[in-house]
Amino acid sequence: MGERPASFYFDLASPLCYLAAERVLHALALPVQWQPVLARELTSARRLPGAPANGSTPAGEEPLSTNLTAPEAPSLGSEERYRARIAELAQQLALQPLRWPAEFPFDSALAMRAATYAKSIGRGVAFAQAAFRQAFAGGRDLGEREGVLIAAASCEMHPAAVLAALERQGIARELEQATARAAQTGVSSVPALSVAGRVFAGEHALERAAAHVGARAAGAL
Length: 221
Description:
Blueprint: E1 6-10, H1 15-21, H2 24-27, E2 32-36, H3 78-92, H4 109-120, H5 124-136, H6 145-154, H7 159-167, H8 169-185, E3 192-195, E4 198-201, H9 205-217
Parallel strand pairs: 1-2
Antiparallel strand pairs: 1-3, 3-4
Helix pairs in contact: 1-5, 4-5, 4-8, 5-6
């Protein structure tokens, strides 16, 4: 019997989720289901010492490892260190130069309802990838409808259908329920992957999940 699909939990306000989203389809030897969740609802804000505490990290995002050397001078504040580290990681992955939305962190509720609708019509991965790139390669604010609609149009989602979905209580309720189910699974921050009953979260979630899958395949677990 084959392995159960892995689940990738993401919030479009999270640049760490963006970095994971660019790799997750190729990193695991498993099918991956992409699940939109509202990270701020997963748990009350948790911060490690040294992580941004002024709102520069989306609520519910796992803070960056504090033992990583920032690429800039140590006199930089926590927000600058955070942004510099994200930019450094994007460069290491050969992604487009990072462009931050003018409003960061932005309120992702609108975009996450659109992601939930996209998932329901089979466009979940395409929309999430497009939206992440609009936000962190294009610098668009996904808290605004325009940014959401541009991402939707790039994967052939009709603007009128998207706008209608954004107003539907059923879509908002589906997102809320998916977030609650993720929390019950043990997801307390994003990015996160659930693989064979294990949850991996944070900057190195993808690498740890891939190692776990490899160990299981080799019979080491």
